[in-house]
Write a structure and sequence with these properties.
243 residues
C-alpha cells in the first residue's frame, strides 16, 4: 500500500513536469529602421522634463517564432523615408527626469509610446501597430545619444491574427533609439538636446503562461503526494499498535 501511494504521487508530479514544458512558444515581433534612413527627432528640455521622440522612422517588421507568416515585412505609413518611400513612425514621451549622473539620464517610470503605420498584405493601412508604457527609461550620452527602454505593450489584433498569435497574448518589450549628437553640447553634461534619430529597434516578446492542463496535472501530483504521506502515517500507527 505504501509503495503504491508513493508511486502514484511521483507519477502525478512527473506528468505535470512533462506537460508544462511545451506550454506555450515565445513569439517575437520586432520593429526597426531597416533601410528607412535617418529621420525624426529625440529631445530633452534640460529642465527636468520628459524625454520625447517624434516622427522616428520604422521601415521593417520582423516576426520570429510566429505560427504563420514568420519573416521580414515592410512597415509602411505616412512618414517620407529612403525606403520603402513612406514608412511607419514611432512617437513617445517618457516620465520626468529622475537623475543625471556620469553621462546617464534616468527618467521616472511612466510615459508611453506608439508605432503607427501599415504592413502590406495584412489589411492594416495606417493604424496603431504597437503601443505600450515604459517601466524603465534612460539615455546614455556620448558620441551618440542612445535611449534605452523597457515595459509592457500591446500589438494590433489584426497583425496578431495574420501571424497566427492568439488574441489576448501578453507582451513585454525592450527598445532603443540612437540619435546623432551633432551640435548638441548639452547632451554631454545633463543639459538640453535635440537630435536626429538614425537607428531604432523595438522588440516585443510574448510572455508564456502555463496551460490549464499543466496546472491541473500539477495539482493532481500535489494531491497524490499529500495522500501518500497520510497513508504512510496511518500505516506507521497501525504498525506501532500491532507491536
Amino acid at each position: 500500500m505504501r509503495r503504491h501511494a508513493s508511486w502514484l504521487g511521483g507519477v502525478g508530479v512527473l506528468l505535470a513536469l512533462f506537460w508544462t514544458a511545451p506550454a506555450q512558444a515565445t513569439e517575437l515581433i520586432d520593429f526597426g529602421t531597416g533601410l528607412a534612413g535617418a529621420g525624426g527627432h529625440m529631445k530633452y528640455d534640460g529642465a527636468g522634463g520628459a524625454l520625447s521622440g517624434s516622427g522616428i522612422l520604422m521601415g521593417v517588421m520582423t516576426a520570429m517564432g510566429a505560427p504563420s507568416n514568420d519573416g521580414i515585412h515592410l512597415a509602411t505609413g505616412g512618414a517620407p523615408c529612403a525606403f520603402p518611400g513612406l514608412c511607419a513612425e514611432l512617437d513617445f514621451t517618457t516620465g520626468l527626469l529622475d537623475s543625471y549622473s556620469n553621462g546617464v539620464y534616468s527618467f521616472k517610470p511612466g510615459g508611453s509610446f506608439v508605432i503607427t503605420g501599415g504592413i502590406p498584405g495584412t489589411g492594416i493601412g495606417n493604424e496603431q501597430l504597437m503601443w505600450g508604457t515604459f517601466t524603465s527609461e534612460s539615455v546614455l550620452d556620448g558620441g551618440q545619444v542612445k535611449f534605452n527602454a523597457a515595459g509592457t505593450d500591446s500589438i494590433n489584433p489584426t497583425l496578431l491574427s495574420y501571424l497566427g498569435i492568439a488574441p489576448g497574448t501578453t507582451f513585454e518589450f525592450v527598445g532603443s533609439v540612437i540619435g546623432a549628437n551633432l551640435g548638441n553640447p548639452g547632451a554631454y553634461n545633463g543639459g538640453a538636446f535635440d537630435v536626429t534619430t538614425v537607428s531604432t529597434d523595438f522588440s516585443s516578446i510574448s510572455t508564456p503562461t502555463p496551460e490549464p492542463t499543466a496546472l491541473a496535472l500539477m495539482l493532481m501530483g500535489s494531491l497524490a503526494l499529500f495522500g501518500a504521506r497520510r497513508t504512510q502515517r496511518r500505516l506507521s500507527r497501525v504498525s506501532v499498535r500491532s507491536n
